[in-house]
Specification:
Layout: H1 5-12, E1 16-19, H2 24-32, E2 46-49, H3 55-62, E3 66-69, E4 72-73, H4 75-81, E5 84-88, H5 92-105, E6 106-111, H6 117-145, H7 150-157, H8 165-176, H9 185-202, H10 207-222
Parallel strand pairs: 1-2, 2-3, 5-6
Antiparallel strand pairs: 4-5
Helix pairs in contact: 6-7, 6-8, 6-9, 7-8, 9-10
Length: 240
């Protein structure tokens, strides 16, 4: 077993190195920091980043090594069943080499373009996820406060136009008030911040995105629920 990151990179040689950590800063440290992977990297090595990482930084990393950004969606259920959706960015050559690894953990793998394209797509995904969790939480709590069973409301909506995996899976968590961590709220907040940074960089003025950031900031920091599952956003509305 390699004792250092450069030694690990040398042992892998021109093979595949996979990175799956929670923040852009940690990715940078692992790759480019003192004692980082790049110090021992073979020019033929391909790096796969499965995390949700900043778009500018991803493009920077791709300028240093062969890089495939391959963030995933599907949550804990998809990871355990190896049915994740994988959104990949990178050169065609790097993606071709990475594809057999990606297909082991994902049932839907899409190459979206050059480095950074996967991260842009993941942030679009996370924008939908963050705001849909909020919408489902409000809808179920609204029903409950109006005297209608949220469990029955959820069941009635499944199969209709409002159906989604979030209503199916996280709606059930909200009904049961079971917020044991799967996808932690603090990581959802991290992704919402990345969305806001990307939106600002491309000139998108989104009041709903700013409101989403405020909600997740409140839930994680003011309420102290960062270690709960992100479906726990329901607790913001569960008063009295």
């Amino acid at each position: 077993r390699a004792a250092t990151l450069p030694q690990l990179a040398r042992e892998v040689g021109a093979g595949i190195l996979c990175i799956n950590v929670t923040t852009t800063e940690v990715v940078r440290q692992i790759l480019l920091g003192p004692g980082g992977l790049v110090e021992g990297a073979d020019p033929g090595a391909v790096f796969i980043d499965f995390g949700t990482t900043g778009v500018p930084e991803t493009r920077e990393f791709a300028g240093r090594v062969q890089w495939v950004d391959a963030p995933v969606s599907g949550g804990q259920v998809g990871a355990e069943a190896a049915t994740l959706t994988i959104m990949a960015g990178g050169t065609p050559e790097a993606f071709h080499r990475a594809a057999p690894v990606l297909q082991v953990v994902g049932s839907r793998v899409t190459h979206l373009g050059p480095a950074g394209s996967g991260q842009v797509t993941k942030l679009a995904n996370q924008l939908i996820v963050a705001q849909t969790i909020d919408a489902v939480a409000q809808a179920l709590r609204l029903a409950e406060l109006a005297g209608v069973s949220p469990a029955l409301v959820r069941e009635a909506l499944l199969g209709g136009f409002a159906e989604s995996r979030i209503l199916q899976l996280h709606g059930d968590r909200m009904v049961r008030r079971d917020f044991a961590p799967g996808g932690r709220a603090e990581l959802q907040l991290k992704d919402v911040r990345l969305m806001c940074e990307l939106a600002e960089s491309v000139g998108l003025d989104s009041p709903t995105l700013r409101n989403s950031l405020a909600q997740w900031e409140r839930f994680v920091h003011a309420e102290g629920h960062g270690n709960l599952d992100h479906s726990g956003l329901f607790l913001l509305y569960d008063r009295g």
